Amino acid sequence: MKEKIKRFYFNYLWWIWQTILVLFSVFFMIFGIEILIKSYTLNNPFYFMMIFFASNLIILISVVLIAGFIYRIVGVFRLVHQKKKQSEDT
């Protein structure tokens, strides 16, 4: 039973979970870009600086998370195809 759950998770749920994480990261990246654009409409320089740097931090963290999730997805995808190729060769 445990082996079936593990196989189901790695065949289906892992890919769905990684896709959801990438989509959340893209959402926050777009949200950070929107905040950055809105920060240029502020009149108070202190508020501008605070919101400007906060939005850049949101964008930076989102881009790093997107890169990490995609790197992990590509690595697992290559590993799966190598295993399939080895099983076809033998």
What's the shape? elongated
Beta content comes to under 5%
In total, how many domains does the architecture comprise?
1
How far do the termini sit from each other?
Answer: 28 Å
List segments where confidence is low: pLDDT < 50 over at least 5 consecutive residues. Answer: none
Task: From the alpha carbons, calculate the radius of gyration and give it in angstroms.
Answer: 20 Å
Please bin the fraction of helical residues. Answer: over 70%
Number of strands: 0
Count of helices?
2
Structural class: mainly alpha
Give the gist of this structure:
With 90 residues, this protein is mainly alpha-helical. The chain has helices at 2-39, 45-89. The longest helix has 45 residues, at 45-89.
Summarize the structure in words.
By secondary structure, the chain is mostly helical. The protein has one domain (21-89). The protein has helices at residues 2-39, 45-89. Helix 1 runs antiparallel to helix 2 (45-89). The chain starts with a helix and ends with a helix. The mean pLDDT is 91.
